[in-house]
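Lab meeting, item 3. Inverse folding demo.
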């Protein structure tokens, strides 16, 4: 049974820390305004139903990367990451005694591939999103949309809490940040990681970086308050420094 979500005509979707707008048809927009009297709403991405398998997601990325226009947009960037999600349609549904409502329903056979690109400008870096709608059944790209590039400083000045970081991940994505929190799950995860405040993942060994022996082993333990400095990507901080707060 598909999960039905009541919403308004424009939906803000949070994906890999970036916010995107999904628009409905004019008929549905008119229906939503008529039912709810407003025309926009914020929707938590955790509530969105998704039904794409890992194989479908991999196929969608392959189809997108095979398109010459997509390859052209990725040329010259220093790095990029991909996320794959459903393409959603707004549909009228029955809602209790009121009789009318709107549901966000995945469109069968379609996927949305989002490329988050990074370009180094010295003290700043540029972030751009390229959104590619893919027809999985026909194996072709249906639509390409490129969002304007946003430039941000590489280092965010000032201290953040875990809530400040996670409540607005797109603002800090790719930046080096300082985050204050309490260590948890150190030594309990199946990765060189621990949690801050039970909600933010901190990775302390990656690529050629390993701060475990010098800054973590016998230095901090679960329950300690610490300041973690590192690059924030997705939902993870790749730590460069962990300092215990002693007062």
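The presenter then showed the designed sequence:
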């Amino acid at each position: 049974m598909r999960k039905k979500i009541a919403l308004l005509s424009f939906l803000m979707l949070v994906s890999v820390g970036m916010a995107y707008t999904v628009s409905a048809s004019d008929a549905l927009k008119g229906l939503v305004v008529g039912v709810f009297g407003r025309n926009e709403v914020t929707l938590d991405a955790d509530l969105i139903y998704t039904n794409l398998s890992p194989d479908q997601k991999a196929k969608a990325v392959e189809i997108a990367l095979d398109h010459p226009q997509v390859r052209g947009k990725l040329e010259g960037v220093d790095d990029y990451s991909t996320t794959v999600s459903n393409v959603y349609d707004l549909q009228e549904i029955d809602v209790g005694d009121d009789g009318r409502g709107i549901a966000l329903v995945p469109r069968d056979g379609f996927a949305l591939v989002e490329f988050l690109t990074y370009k180094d400008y010295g003290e700043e870096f540029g972030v751009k999103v390229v959104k590619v709608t893919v027809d999985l059944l026909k194996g072709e790209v249906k639509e390409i949309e490129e969002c304007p590039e946003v430039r941000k400083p590489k280092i965010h000045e000032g201290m953040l809490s875990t809530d400040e970081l996670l409540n607005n991940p797109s603002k800090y994505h790719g930046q080096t940040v300082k985050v204050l929190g309490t260590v948890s799950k150190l030594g309990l995860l199946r990765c060189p990681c621990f949690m801050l405040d039970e909600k933010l993942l901190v990775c302390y060994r990656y690529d050629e970086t390993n701060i475990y022996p010098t800054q973590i082993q016998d230095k901090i333990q679960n329950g300690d308050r610490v300041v973690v400095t590192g690059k924030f990507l997705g939902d993870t901080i790749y730590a460069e420094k962990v300092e215990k707060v002693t007062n």
